[in-house]
């Protein structure tokens, strides 16, 4: 993926669990990443978690770059096997997604919206993707607003082992409509 936006160029590369662990550790333990639920993680915990993801057949992680510098984390997963097993009826073409914007001392207005847009572009670049599924914490109002801005529609609250989540979906058509692209 490479997307040039009003805030610059965003790209993604596969995450390397060992090489990227220290960087990821600084992101996921930052107070702004509270919903990532890794506040107390040690470096080895982060390495272990991302090695587990790298080894998983149905879960992938990527480092997002802004102008070539690490700036966000993106995960995609198959909800038939990861995160949502038994919590909803998956449809062909469903892809699950998580993203985390890195903490910064110099925020750029519109950056998080540009990131979620780039992530959605990446997911929908695969013609097999028909619908993106997310399950953020019900109390994460900021991400609910972002999700809605790119076309997600909340379906219902679900109980996951680690949180009460808002199950939401975004079809390709909903995403394009939210972007103002004629279908």
Description of the structure:
The chain has 183 residues and is an alpha+beta fold. The chain has five helices and eight strands. It has helices at residues 21-28, 43-55, 111-124, 141-149, 172-179, and strands at residues 2-5, 8-14, 59-66, 69-77, 94-101, 131-134, 153-159, 164-171. It has an eight-stranded mixed beta sheet with strand order 1-2-3-4-5-6-8-7, sandwiched between helices. A hairpin with a 4-residue loop joins strand 7 (153-159) and strand 8. Helix 1 (21-28) crosses helix 2. The longest helix is centred in the middle third of the chain and has 14 residues, at 111-124. The radius of gyration is 16 Å and the shape is globular. The mean pLDDT is 92.
Molecular shape: globular
Average predicted local confidence, pLDDT: 92
- Helical proportion, percent range: 25-40%
**Total number of helical segments?**
5
Approximate strand percentage: 25-35%
Q: Number of DSSP strands?
A: 8
N- to C-terminal distance: 22 Å
Taking Cα atoms only, what radius of gyration do you get, to the nearest Å?
A: 16 Å
Taking strands numbered 1, 2, ... along the chain, how are they ordered across the largest sheet? 1-2-3-4-5-6-8-7
Q: What are the secondary-structure elements, in order, as H or E?
A: EEHHEEEHEHEEH
Which consecutive residue ranges, at least 5 long each, have pLDDT under 50? none
The major beta sheet can be summarized as: 8 strands, mixed
């Amino acid at each position: 993926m490479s997307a040039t936006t009003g805030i610059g160029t965003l790209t993604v590369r596969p995450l390397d669990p060992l090489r990227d662990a220290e960087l990821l550790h600084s992101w996921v333990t930052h107070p702004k990443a509270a919903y990532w639920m890794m506040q107390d993680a040690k470096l080895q915990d982060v390495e272990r978690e991302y090695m587990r993801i790298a080894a998983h057949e149905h879960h992938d992680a990527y480092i997002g770059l802004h102008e070539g510098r690490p700036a966000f984390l993106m995960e995609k997963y198959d909800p038939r096997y990861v995160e949502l097993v038994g919590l909803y009826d998956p449809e062909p073409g469903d892809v699950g997604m998580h993203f985390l914007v890195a903490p910064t001392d110099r925020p750029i207005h519109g950056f998080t919206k540009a990131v979620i847009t780039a992530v959605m572009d990446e997911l929908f670049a695969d013609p097999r993707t028909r619908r993106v599924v997310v399950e953020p914490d019900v109390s994460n109002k900021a991400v609910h607003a972002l999700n809605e801005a790119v076309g997600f529609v909340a379906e219902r609250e679900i109980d996951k082992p680690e949180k009460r989540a808002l199950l939401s979906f975004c079809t390709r058509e909903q995403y394009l409509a939210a972007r103002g692209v004629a279908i």
